[in-house]
Amino acid sequence: MDPIYLIIVIILLGLAVIDLTVGVANDAVNFLNSSIGSKVAPMWLVLTIASIGILLGTLFSSGMMEIARSGVFHPEMFTFKNIMMLFLAVMLTDVILLDVFNSLGLPTSTSVSLVFELLGAGVAVALFTIWQNNGGNLIDYINSGKALAIISGIFLSVAIAFVAGSVIMYISRLIFSFSYKKAFKYLGAIWCGFALTAMTYFIVFKGLRGSPFVVDDFLTMIEANMGKTLLITFAGWMVIMGILQLLRVNILKIIVLVGTMALALAFAGNDLVNFIGAPLAGLDAYKHANEVFAATGSIDNLYMHSLNGPVKANALILLAAGGVMVLALWFSKKARTVTDTEVNLSRQTAGIERFSSSGLSRALVRWGVNANKAAKKILPKSFIDKINSRFVLPEQNLKPGASFDLIRASVNLTIAAMLIALGTSLKLPLSTTYVTFMVAMGSSLADRAWGRESAVYRITGVLTVVGGWFVTALVAFTIAGLVATILVFGGKIAVFGMLALVIFLLFKSSKFHKKRKSAEAAKAEILVDESGVVETSTTEVRESVKSLLNIYNQTIKSLKDEDRSLLRKNALKSEALYKKYKDKRTFEVVPTIQTITLKELDIEQEYVQIVDYTYEITKALRVITADSLIYIQNNHKGFNDDQEADLEELSNHMIKLYETFMQKLDENDYSKFSVISELRDEILEKCAELTRKQIQRVKRQECGTRNSILFMTILNETKNIALQSVNLMKSQRNMYKTVKRNAEKIPLKEVATVS
């Protein structure tokens, strides 16, 4: 048999290891979110418990392996050669797709990616086969009925999870409120008993089905006595929790930690197929082909009927896969990035919002506000006041650093584990990402974490993530189909070429993520004392000034040359700069001054003003570049020689102003600062002079209307830039002077310790 098939099997197994790594990095958020968000225990303990859950879950996953073999397509319609290329295309696509989402910090669905990759690659290879055989029907190759059932189950889980999370969280909060400790004394054992019973039922009783370690007689016995078993289980857990509560043990922490293990178990049981299902199917296909080749000497017309049968995965392989997942869980930095996104969207407290608002999110919030007003008119005020009293936040209801409390964490874990384990028992590849994410979003909505201050941003974030899931489906289908087409047409050369491309992309992605996280860590670390704030501010001001001056000068030059391409580039640059400082002013300023430790308020004041002045400068520059681009794009008559000379002279004044400031900034020497103000006054006088000259041109009818409007716009916005630039320079000077003054009294290294 051609050795290329052995090479493909080796590649598939290698990709399985990589896929397990990137898959866990994506899905770790599913079972770590509640523990991390509630700060229930040290990170090492949370990871240890999750690791145990993963290893146990791998043993329950064999019943799902059929999805990758025959759940989406009919393997008996494909030859051995083509089906190996199909599995290879699926794995190559999956590795890259998941890694891209991890690098961006967006959770996506490994179940959706797998199903649509199988579908895309299956369609591509089927079309190739039909073309090769000069005829055929695509529907004969694709298991459309089962594929539709799988897809429906995945997307249905979104609605079910959100509704379940919202309803149960709302009921839970009505029972316990945010000041839950008093009520929990009496109801805690019952609550925890119910939660543990639910987890036990769905994870153990239902999850055992399909495991190679459990005999059918045992399952039959349990099912025959399910009611009695559940009652005994509930009573047992309730008694145990009651005893622990009497011993002053925080049993909510037990629920969250057990729930973390249960959800990790459910994740491994449900999602392991997404990472190793295709490689193991490829291995089984190779073994069968090898046997046929040894018996007949040919596999040219070997069709893969063998993949239709039931499969029991090797326990050692499952445990090995679990081991890789555990290592990825402990050491993957991208897993933390994805987790941060979900925790940020569900946190109870205010802070930096990662996402901006959108028209749809604003519309949904308005609908919610109006619905709330309508409800207040219908319902009695006493009833509404009673409900609202259950949602009053005490001053210290959260552990330092926590995003939500243990009640919400326990709800998230219980509901998510129940839904996922139920899906596993029914052999439906429910998306663990969809379920856990939507449960968390539903519970945060019910918990009133989405207040008027944050709702539009949180909803945009949720819509972005959900939209990313649909993109996942489309991209997975398209890329897998494209890769499969390349492989079946390109043969051996294509195999090695695509493998090299994937390795290269993984390398570049790793460098990109490392660089981004290092920059974020450096920024977070430096903003702790006065020197750090000044250093950060100085760097940002220096970079901004250089960019502003460059864009301004290039815009003036490109207007003279009527260079559309350069104008377009500058317009895009100024738009990006404007958006950066708009977001910074909107989302970062207040949280930053809340977190940094400063000796006096003067530094904070100057920091806020620097951001605000830079925003105003970028706004003015944005107007100049955008209006200039529109003017030239519309093919209006360019400026005359006098106008060009005037703008060039004005540009030279701006250069002199910024270069003078940059010199002082680089040398940390703000003496004779009055020269800055003098240069500003010269620019203002020059703008006034050029305005008078332009008015004279208009009266002499030397310039058209649109020409005059653009010219006057440039003068007015340049005046704004000059005014705000000098204000910016003054704030930077004042910040430096304040730190220098404090340093003469207190050693700079001690500044951070001063309250």
Give a description of the structure.
This protein has 755 residues and is mainly α. It folds into two domains: 4-518, no CATH class; 527-753, Methane Monooxygenase Hydroxylase, Chain G, domain 1 (Up-down Bundle). Helices cover 79% and strands 0% of the residues. It is built from 23 helices and no strands. It has helices at 4-38, 43-58, 66-70, 80-104, 110-132, 144-176, 181-205, 216-224, 226-246, 251-296, 315-331, 333-346, 359-378, 381-389, 406-425, 432-446, 455-526, 530-561, 564-595, 601-633, 641-667, 674-699, 705-745. The protein is globular, with a radius of gyration of 32 Å. The N and C termini lie far apart (75 Å). The model is unreliable at 523-528 and 746-755 (pLDDT under 50).
Descriptive key words:
Methane Monooxygenase Hydroxylase, Chain G, domain 1, 2 domains, globular, disordered C terminus
Give a quick rundown of the structure:
This protein has 755 residues and is mainly alpha-helical.
List the helices and strands and how they pair.
Layout: H1 4-38, H2 43-58, H3 66-70, H4 80-104, H5 110-132, H6 144-176, H7 181-205, H8 216-224, H9 226-246, H10 251-296, H11 315-331, H12 333-346, H13 359-378, H14 381-389, H15 406-425, H16 432-446, H17 455-526, H18 530-561, H19 564-595, H20 601-633, H21 641-667, H22 674-699, H23 705-745
Helix pairs in contact: 1-2, 1-4, 1-10, 1-11, 1-12, 1-15, 1-16, 2-10, 2-11, 4-5, 4-10, 4-12, 4-17, 5-6, 5-17, 6-15, 6-16, 7-9, 7-10, 7-15, 10-15, 13-17, 15-16, 18-19, 18-20, 18-21, 18-23, 19-20, 20-23, 21-22, 21-23, 22-23
